[in-house]
Amino acid sequence: MIYPWQQEQWHKMMQLKQAQRLPHAILLYGEEGSGKRDFAQSLSASLLCKQSVQTGEACGRCSACQLIAAQTHPDLTFLKPVPPENSKSTKPVLNIRIDAIRKLCTKLTSSSQFEGYRIAIIENADRMLVQGANALLKTLEEPGNQTLIILVTSRPHRLPITVRSRCQALRFPYPSEATAIGWLQTQGLKSPEIALKYAHGAPLTALYQHEETLQHRELLAKALTAGLNGESSLSYAAKLAELPKDLSLNWLLDWVNDLVRLKNTNFNSAIINEINRPHLNKLAKKSDLKRIFAYNDLIIEYIRKETIALNLQLIWENLLISWDSL
Ligand SMILES: [Zn+2]
């Protein structure tokens, strides 16, 4: 997909393609959430497609396009950071595996399956370790015919200069606010201005984070109001345990703050979870302020603890039981 704010970069690539002057390595760099990876995929598809359309984009229907869609095209390789094998940490150090880079280099120097381009997309390319970058460097120095290596990163300064200097760099800044909001509207976002602000101007982050956040907040709301509907809140513990810990606990704090506000202002205060006001009113009426404060302290204690030392499902079970008896 070529986003409206990537037209300039796309035309530049298509001109080089038509003139058969595409470089062997391209570095797509710029802001996080500006759509660099999608651009890399569109460019690869355009080169592998057997009948690309007038704008240069892939047709989406030919056999090559079907293989790309199924992620099984033999001449297209994706690399990205993966956690170390057997890692049990919830926050592992993610690097691009050296053996994966070596395998990729071998593949790029052997002949193409379809007598066309052989392409590699390396996502978060700055996460290559020194040995990995050195292995790639050899392929960058002596690229085979019709090979293209696309490096994608929002931290280009972390790439070795030896690697950077062998790539044609293409920058992807954020679009103007008007362009981003216009596009977000076409994606069906109801409050694009707010979403774009939350995402610090990154249109794709605004689109995905916003939707995801809404879904997650809705899940929490269901759990916290289950008791009022005569359901068991405990059945939500496993799902809540899958959400980012600190984020979801902070949303829970929003609910606690809303309860305190409602109780202290005789149910007149503005609250964060406005959409759940009827439920919160009922909860505020039946709850005890002292217990709410103790609950608040408990959440903060959990936020301070390292995730790795915690059984999140157990914590959510505990929090939901306590919530129901506030
Ligand atoms: Zn095609």
Describe this structure in words.
With about 325 residues, the protein is of the alpha/beta class. It has two domains: about 5-175, P-loop containing nucleotide triphosphate hydrolases (Rossmann fold, 3-Layer(aba) Sandwich), CATH 3.40.50; about 225-325, no CATH class. It has 14 helices and five strands. The chain has helices at about 5-20, 35-50, 65-70, 100-110, 130-140, 160-165, 175-185, 190-200, 205-225, 235-240, 245-265, 275-285, 290-305, 310-325, and strands spanning about 25-30, 75-80, 120, 145-155, 170. It has a five-stranded parallel sheet with strand order 2-3-4-1-5, sandwiched between helices. Helix 4 runs parallel beside helix 5, helix 8 crosses helix 9 (about 205-225) and helix 11 packs antiparallel against helix 13 (about 290-305). The chain is elongated. The model has no long low-confidence stretch (mean pLDDT about 90). The protein binds zinc ion. Zinc ion (ZN) binds near residues 51, 59 and 62.
* The CATH superfamily title of the largest domain: P-loop containing nucleotide triphosphate hydrolases
Name of the CATH architecture of the largest domain = 3-Layer(aba) Sandwich
How many domains comprise the coordinates? 2
Q: Radius of gyration, Cα only, in angstroms?
A: 25 Å
Uncertain parts: none
Strand order, main sheet: write it out.
2-3-4-1-5
Please count the beta strands (DSSP E, at least 2 residues each): 5
Q: What is the arithmetic mean of pLDDT?
A: 90
CATH topology of the largest domain: Rossmann fold
Structural class by SSE content: alpha/beta
- Biggest β-sheet: count, sense, barrel? 5 strands, parallel
In percent, how helical is the residue content?
A: 40-55%
User: What is the molecular shape?
Assistant: elongated
What is the CA–CA distance across the termini? 50 Å
Can you tell me the CATH class of the largest domain?
Alpha Beta
Write down the secondary-structure element order. HEHHEHEHEHEHHHHHHHH
Multimeric organization: single chain
The DSSP helix count reads: 14
What ligand molecules are bound, each kind once?
zinc ion
Beta fraction: 5-15%
